[in-house]
Amino acid sequence: MKLISHNHGFGAAAISLAASALLSVSCSLQPPLKNLEDKIIEVKGGGVELKLHSLSARITSIVHTASGEELLRPWPDQDRLAWFSTSITDGLTGRTVSSLTDSVLVLGFEDGEDKVEFDKLILPDGYRVAQRVIGTREGVFLDYEVRPDDEDAPLRSLDFTVMLPIQRGSTVWVPGCETRCETVGRRRRRFVYGPGAGDDCRMRIPLISLWRHDGPAITVAVPLELPVVRVVFEVEPSLVPGGVAPRIDECDWLRVTFDLAGASGTRSLRTGLWLYAHEPGWRDALRVYAEKYREYFEAPRRIASAETPLSSMAPELPPVWRLTRDQNSGVRTVRLAWNVFRSGEWVPPQALRFDDFSWRSEPDSAYGEISVSRVRGVIDNLIQYKISAVLDGAWNSYCERFIAESSYGSDIAENEEGEPISAGPGRLMMHAGAESPFGRAMMEQQRQMLDLYPQALGYYFADWSTTGIDFAHDDSLTVVHNRPASDLAANRVRVGEKLIELVSQQRKLTIISPPSRVVEAKGVDMICFTGVDPADLRGAALLGLWRPVISDPGVAGDDLTLVELEELLKEKLVQGVIASHGELERDQQLGRAYRPLFAQLTGRQWRLDPVGLELPSGVRSQLFQVPSARVSGEFELVLCLVQPGVAITEEIRSASFTVALSFPGADRFNRASWQAASRAPRAVPLRVSSPAENRIEIVVPPFGPAGVLRLDIQ
């Protein structure tokens, strides 16, 4: 690696400060190289061309490779070297240093093909920053490693922020956080990936996309290989009137901050971003990201019978007439939530020796006495009616207090005051490392369940979204208030991933409640949405781009009015989430109307290729695809349509309308069928309106609250 020493600051004061600071920095600095070329370095990848200044390591522009248009373009009168910046906030000293205002010494520099590396020292505080910029076909990756330059420096909290300019009028899209927002004239928006979102939008997928109607789009994302605790994306729109050149602190910005982490003289903080260009719109933005990390969005295997409304059942087997009715209603899977003993002791030791050893189920003591033989009996009886059973697995983020204190004391999570973190009456939050006593207990008892219940279809792992900070353990990443800590959500990565792998090896279905972050969903077959919040539903639905998302039968919306329940059913339909049997069973008319519509979602995948879709105002929609029942290797399109505020009990007042779709290969689809709520399926006219534009039109009959349009190849 070539080594140089170079000052780059703002004005004589910064240069003088850098010169004096050089006297106190480590004598390990190499002498400056002579005749180093002052140039602009280009790194290309994924439609992005990123340019850097060789002597300062600063980004000077981010350009769309094909068109040459700047993807992140601020006000033209601003200093180009001030457009892009980084800053470090030190929790120990309370100081913030910035590449805009502090001196940067480039100590090391290496320029290779589609790759450049810098070794920088930021003065006067003395932070060592290793900066790598790598271009691949997927995009341009920015990687930073930060630590104090003094090897004896103690651990401290560090917030690392990257500031990127936003052109006025840009559209901003964040997965699951509303549909989109404009930067002009809006308040500051915060999107949080990780714990502590509060009133801000919680991100499950760490990316933000920006585009203008007249230009290409860019996505700024966090690579999933990068271990992070929390990342905060902030859009800061300028309030300066149009036509007035703002000061540097008045511009529109995208601020990306990595926090709840830290560094010492021997421990670095690593952060990074992935930049890629794409077609304007959310579909292409999400497609590029999800295809790179497909194992986090895709089911390893799919079972069609499980992609149906999930039901629940008490230990007492229902009468034959009810089983027959449920079977005729489309119930193919039942969750038995009473097979576990208690948190921390999911399988009683005696049950391994005596099938008839009984215990009281944890979820509801009204279920009475449970035993292994009773669980097996219910599973066997359900199979006779072609209904499969899913059991609760050996997983919890908490443990019964007396079990935790007697068996897993070293794994009890503590708050900042050193007190055990309560998870409710008689329960404590736990730290679960793969090799910790609590983590090993989960693995061993899950193996026992697999042996005890070979006829079970799969296992449901609830409580997969708990977040929090544990101060009793150090995960070598989390730092809060200058103290080492542990991110409890990482339990799903540390031991949860191993549990999923264990169950999958036995060819059993794995179902989890929606995780707080997509990185915790690797290798999972199904997501089970819990709750009734539409905003939370939208975020959870995107975790199932290529896998089913069903609904928890234990959350049937009993507190919702029928009007509210129907609106929730419509939201689930357009998000591709299958409603639970309890939701559809609550009202007979709702069940008859919506159950056939949800049946259309079996095998569904999100359609992420760019699609032009024309609909009348007031109609919401989402486009999916399912495997073709007629042509092997082909797919059918499923367009779910809903009218918010329209109830199934109302008389149909809408007129027929035309739906237009345009995408490459659209003219291959030549047959359409339509099914509205409470209506039988019927064929509807389809015509190719413009072969050159791959545009097709379908006439949709008058309908009420919801319907499904299906297109296939005859």
Describe it for me?
With 714 residues, the protein is an alpha+beta fold. It has 3 domains: 281 residues, Beta-galactosidase, Chain A, domain 5 (Distorted Sandwich), CATH 2.70.98; 221 residues, TIM Barrel (Alpha-Beta Barrel), CATH 3.20.20.80; 152 residues, Golgi alpha-mannosidase II (Immunoglobulin-like, Sandwich), CATH 2.60.40.1180. Helices cover 17% and strands 32% of the residues. It is built from 11 helices and 46 strands. It is flat and about 85 Å long. The protein starts with a strand and ends with a strand.
Jot down its keywords:
single chain; 17% helix; 11-stranded antiparallel beta sheet; 11 helices; Beta-galactosidase, Chain A, domain 5; TIM Barrel; alpha+beta; Immunoglobulin-like; 7-stranded mixed beta sheet; 714 residues
CATH architecture of the largest domain: Distorted Sandwich
Q: Structural class, from helix and strand content?
A: alpha+beta
Helix tally equals: 11
Strand content: 25-35%
The largest pleated sheet is described as: 11 strands, antiparallel
Q: Return the CATH topology of the largest domain.
A: Beta-galactosidase, Chain A, domain 5
The coarse silhouette is: flat
How widely separated are the two ends? 62 Å
Number of strands: 46
Task: Extract low-pLDDT stretches.
Answer: 1-34
Helical content band: 10-25%
**Average of the residue pLDDT scores:** 87
Gyration radius, in Å: 28 Å
CATH class of the largest domain: Mainly Beta
Number of domains: 3
